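Subject: Interface between my chains keeps coming out wrong

I've been trying for a while to get a sensible model of this assembly. When I model each chain on its own everything looks fine, but I need the whole thing in one frame so I can look at the contacts. Pasting all components below, labels as-is. Any help appreciated, I'm running out of ideas.
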Amino acid sequence: MRKTTKVVAIGLGLTMILTGCAPASPDGSGSTEAVSLTWMTRPDNQAEADVYASISDDITAKGIGLDLTYVAGSSEGSPYQDKLKTDIAAGTAPDVFWLPGTDIADFAKAGLIMNIREEAAKTEHSDADFYAGPMESLTVDPDTGATSPDFLWGVPRDVSTFALYMNLDLIQAAGVDDPRELAAAGNWDWDAFEATSKAITDLGDGNKGFGAGGWWANWGYFVHSAGGGFFNEDRTACALDSDESVAGLEYLKGLYDNGYGVPFGEDAEPGFKAGQVGMFINGRWATPGAREITDFAWDVVELPTGASEGRNWQFWGAYVVNAKTENPAAAWKLIQELTSADVQGQISELGANIPSRVSADATEKFLTFSPPANNQAFLNGIANNPVAEGPLWNGNWPAFDKAAGDGVTALFTGDRTLEDFQANICTETAGAFN
Amino acid sequence: MKNLEIFLERIRKNDWLSRTIDKVAVSYVWIWQAFLSLAFLAAGISILGLQQDLGWIALPAFAGIVVLIFFQAASVLLLRKGNYRGRSIAIIGNVIAIALFSFMAFQISNMISLFDIMSQSFFNSFLGLLVLLSGVAWWVVAVRVIRRLDPEDLSITNKADRSFQIKVIYFFKRVGQVLTLVGSIFFLVQFNPFWMIGIAFSSLFFPNPLAFLCVGLAFFASIQLRALLSPSVSLKLKATQSEEERLTGWLFVSPSIIGFLAFLAGPLVYSFVMSFFKWDGINTPTFIGLKNYSDTLGLEFAASRESLSTGYFQIAELFGMSIGAIDPLFWKAITNIMIFLLTAVPLSVVIALILATLIEQRLPGSKVFRAVFFIPSVAGVIGVTLIWKQMLNSSVGFINYAVGEMFAIFNFFLPGDPLPTRVEIAWLSSEQFALAAVVIVFVWSQFGFNTVLYIAGLQSVSKELYEAAELDGATSFQRFWNVTIPALRPTTFFITATTVILALQLFDIVFALNSPNVVGFPNNATLTPVVYLYQLGFQQNSFGKASAVAWILFAIIFVFTLLQFNRQRQQAEGN
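Reply #2:
Try treating it as a single job with all components included. I did that and got this:
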C-alpha cells in the first residue's frame, strides 16, 4: 500500500513538473502579447478545410501578434449561414467570418458586422487591388444604398464564375464543332449552344445536351445574357418582368421543353460524371469533383453569348469583422493576412476558387492549376462584363430568392405561362423590397 | 468497504464545520435570506440599467426579480416566526440564487471560451487517453485472470517460487499498471488541467471581478441550502414527518423539474411569447399581438379571384367560390402534409405489419431480415437521403433503371405496344412525383422500426386464440384478420400515433432532397409546415412568424393525437 502511494505521489509530482514545462496553451501559442481571435469560413471540401486550418496555424506561428483559432463553418445538414446566425444571436460568433456576397447587406443593416474603413485607412489597403464588382457591394452606405468611400464591410476571400464543363467525347460523337474553337472564333452563342445540345441529345441512350442547377444563378445567367436583370438600375425593385428578362427565360424554357437538358432542378453533376450529359453549367467549385473523372476527356469553355455580351456571374464572398469583436485592429490584420496573394494562391491551388486580387501574378498562377486545360474560360467569364453577385441593400435577398425561385420553377415545370409570369412575377416579389 | 465506513464515521464525528454551520444557520438563517433579497434587488436594478441592451426582455426579467424579492422577504418574516413554510420558500430562493449567480458568473467571465480550450486540449491529448485506457483495459484483464487462478498458486508470496505462468500474468498486470501510469501522465501533460484551472480562476477576476462576487454568492447560497436541509433546522422549525417527506420528495424530483423548465418548458414558452412579436432573431422584437397568427391563418371566401380583398391570394376554388389566403404558402404546406400523411402513414404501418407477420413465421433467415429491416432506423437521415437522391436521379438513378428493366421483362411476357425501357421519371423535379419521392424515402426509413414493434406485439398474442380459431376451422387469412389484427390494436395505435407525429414534423428528408434548390422545390410541391417555418426563421429572419407557425403545427398535432386517443379509448371500451 505504501509502495503504491509512493508511486502515485511520484507520478503526480512528475506530472506537475511536466505540466509546468508544457506549452502555455494547448495549441502551442503562448505569447502573452498575441491577441486571441477566432475566425470561420466555409470550406468547399475537407482538403480546403485542412488548408484553412494550416493557414491559420501558419499565421499564428508568424508571430505577428495573432493567436488564431480556426472554425470550419459547415456541417452536414446544417447550412453555414444558419449556424452563423445562431452563433450571432447567442453572442458566440467568431471575430472574423466569411459571408456570401448576397448576405452582406442583411448583416450590415442589422449592425452585425463592422465598418472597417477606419482600420483599413491606417494601413496600405487599396480597394482597387480587388475585383471591382464585389468591392462595389462592399462599400455601400446602408442608409442610402449608394456606394460611399466611408464604408468598407469586408474584403473578398475569392471569386468564381460559371463555365460549361464539357464531355469532349460526347461532343465529338455528336459530330459538332468544339465549343472552345467556336468561342475562340467568337461564334459560341446561344444558337450554337442549342445546336450542340440538340446534337448530343439526339445521340439517344439517355444522353442529354446540357445540365444546370435549379438555383437562381443558373436561370439568372440567361436573364442577364438576354439583356435583362433581377433588379432595376438602383436595385430597389424587381426587373424580372422586362421583355429582355422574359426572353432569356423563354429561351431556356425552350431548351427544357425540347428535352435537351437534364430536367430543371435535377442535380446534373452525377449525370455529367457518368458521361451522359454533354455540357454542365457550374462554377469553379465543381472542378475538384470533375478532376475525379477518368472515363472521358473533359474541359471547360465560357458560357455562350446571348443578346447582351458577357454577363456571366461573378460570385464572391467576403471576410467580415464581427461588430462585437473586442479587437478590431487585430481582426483587420487577420483579414489582410487571409486575403494576401500568398494565402489566396494556396487556396486556389486546390481548384475550387479564383483569387479575388486583380494581379497578373495571381492570374498567371491560377492558369497553372489544371485540369481543366482551359482555365482561361473562367478568367474570361470574370473579365467580360460580368454581373457581380450582389446583396440587396434595399430589401431582403432570401425573400426575393424564394419568391422569384418559385415563380421561375412554376414556369419551367409548365404550371404557368410566360404571360402570367411576366404579368405577376414582380407583384409576387414585391414583398422582398423595402 | 469497512475502511470506508470507519473513515466516514470519523468525518461525521469530527465534522465541526458542518455542525457549526447548522448551528449558525438555525439561528441566523433569516439574515442570509434578507441579504439574498438585497442581492436580488441589486440584480434587478442592474437589469433595469441594462434595459437598452436587453430590450423588451428587461421588463419581465425585472418583474421576475421583484417576485423573488417578495418571496425572499416573506421567507425572512416566516423564518423569524419559526414558520415551516419559510424554510420551503428559502430553499427555493437559494436554489434560484445558485442557478442565477452561477449563470451570471459564467456569462461575465466568458467561461464558454474555456470549453473551446478544453475541447482542443482533449483533442490534443487523445493519444495519452488512448494509452491510459489501453493500460486500464490490460490491467483489468490481468486482474480478472488472476482471480480465476488457483488460490494455492496465489498464496505463494516468494516471487522466485511462483510458476512461470503466474509470473507471466503478474508481469502483464505490471505492464498494465505502467501503461496506465504513463498514459495518465501523458494525458495530464497534454490536457494541461492545471493551466485550465488557472485560466478559469483568473477569468473570475479579470476583466470583471463581478464574476468572483457571483461565484461567492452562489457558494454561500449552497452552504445555506445545505444548512436549510439539515435536521437541526427541521427540529428548530418543528417540522412534521409528512412535511419532511414532502420536502424530500420535491428535492428528489427537483433536478428533473429544473431540467424540464430550463430545456423544454423554457424554450416552449419563449417561442410562444415570440409568436406575438415581429422579430428578426437579432434585434429588439416588436409586439404585434395576434398578427402573426392572423397573417398565417387568414382566409377569405369570395365569388371570384378578382373579388378577393387586397393581400389575399387565391389558393383554391370550391363550389364556384374562390378561397383566398393571406399566406398561401402556409396552406400549401398544410395541403402537402395532409397528402403526405394519408399516403406515408398507412404505407409505413401496413408494410411493417406484413413484414412482421412474415418474420414471425420463423422461416429460415428471418432473423437476418429482422436486422436488415431495422438498419434504416439507425442510419443517419441526411446520409441515407443523399443516397436516395442519387438513386432517384432521373438520368442516372437506380430507381429509373430498375423501372426500365422491369418494363423490359413485362415487354417479354405481355403482348401489345412495348413499354419504354429507358425511363426518365423526374422524381425530384416534377410536381407530380416530388412528394411521392419524399413518401418513398420516409416509408423506407420508418417501416423497419415499426416492424420490430409489430414483432414484439405479435409475440405477445396468446397462442390459445390461434388454436381456438384453428379448431373452429378458421383459415390462415381469417386467423390473421380476426385474431392477429384485433390483438395488435394497441401496437397499431402506438405505431400510428408516433408515425403521424413524425410525419407532421417532416423536415430533414425534404431539406436534403431539395438542396441546393429553394426549399419546397419544385414549386412548393414538397413544402411542409416545418420546412416552411425553417424558411421563415432562418432564411427570411421572421422568427416571430416562424414561432406562430410552430404553434399552429403543435395544435394540429395535438388535435390528431387527441382524436387517435379518443378512438383508441372508444375501441377499448367497445371490447
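Reply #3:
Confirming on my end. Chain A touches chain B through 55 residues (CB under 8 Å).
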